[in-house]
């Protein structure tokens, strides 16, 4: 190494090297001198021929335009662009002949450099090879009538080529720096506005065609294909290289670029523009991998304002195709295709996770109609996602008419229904377990980008559901549901429901469900067929209670699905239900009924019962009536026909109707009655003592009164030697009017083994008893043996007849002589 360095040093210090270095220095100095002499010569040439050069430049330009070309000053740039001759034009303006009418100057430039070929210039010809435009404004204007100030350039006259013909002047290179370009098309309502920081273009010519590789860096102020809707890529910086070619035969410009930067994103673009007088079609195809918000913000305001309500977390592969006519008013045709894989998609109503689909946006959904928002659509193919943990699959969904969006499609889902809890913004239903399958064709409006009034047709199957209906404090277990939604009705094919000891099987339908659910839930009628092997009525009275009022809470941001849950609550509370009930066994406290059938109508927490029948206490009851909550109680009305029920068992079932003066053990027999009464029940379903009002007619057959204190008191007073402790009846009937604590006895007839008795007046369960008793003294023990009713009536009041008054004396029953009208 040291030896090599030593040899190099010796060579550099040798006389031979110094000799060659000196000669090379003289050569470089000679070149510089020649360059300076040449430039000086060009400067002298320009100064001597300035007027002629400028005249030729003006002539060259003016012979090709229909307008005015003005230059404030010009000068030669020494050494710039050598070996070409560089001419700098200052304060250049080009105006068309109709400038006075529209006031738009085609070109206004602070400086334009024109580099001329020296050899052509020495031969007194102008051949411009490069144009540099600095600090300029270019305004291309097209009026509503189709006139454009760009038509300032005269068409070329086509001449047959000859060998002697000189080639036309060509501009091989164009550079722009700090140039503001506006293309204002009033005919098509389009506005393109660019601040060009830099443009560099070298042009290759072939016959009448040309091609170039162009570098461009510009800020997009407006790229509006429809000025009503706004600009694409507004305020974005565009930078990249373009391969551009022009074909004279079809007057078409083709553009291709890869890796073009718009803002922070990279795009591949292929485009064409027809610039013929009768053909102004264009097409732009854009491909990229981009974030949703970045892509949305590149679109016009009418589209991005809607798309910005959505978001996709990870970049998506997008292809956008734009086709239109620069001279036609309205939007171009736009088709955007996107491929989403394992992404998160946010919508105003919630979040889709693990989301995959292929999406298409088009503003020409129906090809026969014009491109516009009403004719726009978003199409989702092979959609798979989880919404609030609920898996969804949609083969195809379409959202069309972006002015009044309507979404349609078919959704399938298979999930554990406990996941539905996440959909509720209010505590209405809480699901503990169960499984659901759904296959539903859907349609819903999108109002302010929120789902509104979704409608479904199809089937839903739910198995083994355990849930709590919180407003009514109902807990249900092992519930199965099969629903079928159609345009005409909702068919409830099967609901198997278990609540405590109650088992219920339901089927039915709701006519016109899809329309009434949202628009008139109060008109909705649910037609149920219910079969119950076993049901406890008291346990179901809680269903009728009004939902507890919620405390007024501080205002919070609106939660998702608020419309859905509020609507669900409204429908449940407002709809009516008509139920055809059949039950093998019904219990109501101590009452047990079998073979029960009834038509039940539920409306606004009120139950109406019609055509009811049941078997109980060895007889049967036909009934109708109503039950309605009132605070913590229930108001009931009843119209019942009781047929030969065991009276003791019947009274025990109803807690003896609150009567304290005797108990069911005091009476035997078969009761037949007609009752039209109303009253109150407690929150647990028990009759409230002394609340009943109404009319009651009754008859007891094969009856007996055992140890009944009021009769025993009368009997011992009037008939001390008769068995008043065990009285059998051949006739016990009456007509009563119930008034709470008191009963108006219009007629009470007793034909017994001890005595016959007729009573009328007031009997009170508390205070106020005042009964008039008519008691024949004859012994009626053998009256029952008489063959006919007429015979028994004929002997009824023979002999001595007592008239007594049973009355209340400070809460105790007293008896005295007298008739009612005498006090």
TrEMBL record:
Keywords: Membrane, Transmembrane, Transmembrane helix
Membrane-spanning segments: 24-46
All copies of domain AsmA, residue ranges: 26-206
GO BP annotation list: regulation of protein targeting to membrane
One Pfam entry name: AsmA
GO (cellular component) term, any one: plasma membrane
Protein name: AsmA-like C-terminal region
Organism from which the protein derives: Flavobacterium nitrogenifigens
């Amino acid at each position: 190494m040291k030896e090599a360095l030593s040899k190099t040093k010796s060579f550099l210090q040798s006389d031979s090297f110094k000799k060659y270095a000196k000669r090379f220095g003289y050569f470089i100095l000679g070149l510089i001198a020649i360059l300076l002499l040449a430039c000086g010569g060009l400067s002298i040439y320009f100064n001597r021929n300035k007027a002629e050069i400028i005249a030729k430049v003006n002539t060259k330009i003016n012979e090709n335009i229909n307008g005015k070309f003005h230059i404030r000053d010009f000068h030669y740039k020494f050494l710039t662009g050598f070996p070409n001759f560089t001419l700098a034009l200052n304060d250049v303006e080009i105006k068309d002949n109709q400038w006075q009418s529209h006031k738009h100057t085609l070109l206004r430039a602070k400086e334009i450099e024109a580099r001329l070929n020296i050899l052509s210039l020495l031969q007194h010809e102008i051949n411009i090879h490069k144009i540099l435009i600095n600090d300029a404004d270019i305004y291309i204007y097209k009026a509503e009538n189709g006139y454009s100030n760009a038509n300032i350039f005269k068409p070329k006259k086509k001449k047959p080529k000859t060998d002697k013909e000189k080639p036309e002047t060509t501009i091989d290179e164009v550079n722009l720096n700090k140039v503001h370009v506006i293309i204002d098309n009033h005919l098509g309502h389009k506005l393109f506005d660019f601040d060009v920081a830099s443009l560099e273009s070298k042009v290759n010519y072939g016959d009448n065609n040309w091609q170039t590789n162009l570098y461009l860096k510009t800020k997009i102020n407006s790229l509006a294909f429809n000025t009503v809707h706004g600009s694409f890529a507004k305020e974005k910086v565009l930078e990249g290289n373009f391969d551009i070619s022009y074909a004279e035969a079809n007057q078409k410009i083709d553009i291709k670029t890869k890796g073009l930067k718009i803002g922070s994103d990279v795009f591949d673009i292929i485009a064409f523009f027809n610039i013929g007088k009768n053909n102004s079609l264009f097409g732009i195809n854009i491909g990229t991998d981009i974030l949703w918000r970045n892509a949305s913000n590149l679109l016009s305001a009418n589209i991005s304002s809607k798309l910005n309500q959505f978001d996709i977390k990870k970049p998506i592969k997008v292809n956008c195709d734009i086709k239109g006519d620069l001279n036609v008013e309205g939007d171009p045709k736009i088709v955007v295709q996107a491929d989403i894989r394992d992404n998160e998609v946010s919508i105003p109503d919630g979040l889709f996770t693990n989301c995959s689909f292929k999406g298409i946006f088009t503003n020409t959904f129906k090809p026969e109609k014009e491109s516009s928002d009403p004719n726009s659509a978003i199409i989702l193919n092979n959609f798979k996602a989880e919404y609030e943990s609920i898996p969804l699959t949609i083969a195809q969904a379409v959202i069309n008419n972006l002015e009044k969006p309507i979404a349609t499609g078919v959704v399938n889902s298979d999930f554990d229904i406990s996941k539905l809890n996440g959909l509720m913004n209010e505590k209405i239903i809480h699901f503990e377990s169960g499984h659901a399958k759904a296959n539903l064709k859907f349609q819903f409006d999108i109002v302010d980008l929120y789902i509104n009034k979704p409608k479904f047709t199809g089937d839903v199957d739910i198995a083994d559901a355990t849930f709590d209906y919180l407003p009514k404090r109902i807990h249900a277990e092992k519930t199965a549901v099969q629903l079928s939604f159609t345009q005409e009705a909702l068919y409830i094919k099967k609901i198997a429901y278990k609540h405590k000891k109650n088992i219920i099987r339901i089927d039915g339908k709701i006519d016109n469900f899809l329309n009434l659910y949202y628009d008139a839930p109060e008109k909705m009628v649910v037609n149920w067929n219910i079969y119950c092997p076993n049901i406890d009525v008291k346990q179901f009275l809680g269903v009728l209670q009004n939902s507890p009022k919620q405390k007024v809470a501080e205002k919070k941001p609106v939660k998702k699905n608020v419309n859905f849950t509020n609507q669900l609550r409204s429908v449940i509370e407002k709809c009516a239900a008509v139920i055809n009930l059949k039950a093998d066994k019904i219990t109501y406290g101590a009452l047990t009924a079998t073979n029960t059938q009834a038509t039940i109508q539920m409306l606004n927490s009120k139950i109406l019962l019609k055509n009811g029948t049941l078997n109980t206490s060895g007889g049967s009851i036909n009934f109708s009536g109503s039950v309605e909550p009132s605070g913590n109680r229930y108001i009931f009305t009843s119209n019942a026909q009781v047929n030969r029920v065991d009276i003791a068992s019947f009274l025990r079932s109803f807690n003896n109707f609150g009567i304290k003066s005797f108990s069911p053990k005091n009476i035997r027999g078969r009761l037949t009655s007609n009752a039209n009464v109303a009253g109150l029940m407690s929150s647990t379903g028990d009759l409230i003592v002394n609340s009943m009002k109404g009319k009651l007619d009754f008859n007891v057959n094969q009856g007996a009164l055992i140890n009944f204190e009021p009769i025993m008191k009368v009997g011992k007073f009037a008939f001390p030697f008769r068995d008043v402790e065990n009285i059998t009846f051949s006739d016990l009937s009456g007509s009563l009017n119930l008034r709470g604590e008191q009963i108006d006895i219009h007629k009470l007839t007793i034909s017994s083994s001890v005595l016959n008795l007729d009573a009328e007046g007031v009997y009170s369960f508390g205070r106020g008893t005042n009964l008039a008793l008519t008691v024949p003294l004859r012994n009626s023990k053998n009256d029952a043996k008489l063959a006919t009713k007429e015979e028994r009536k004929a002997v009824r009041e023979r002999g001595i007849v007592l008239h007594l008054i049973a009355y209340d004396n400070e809460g105790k029953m007293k008896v005295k002589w007298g008739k009612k009208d005498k006090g």
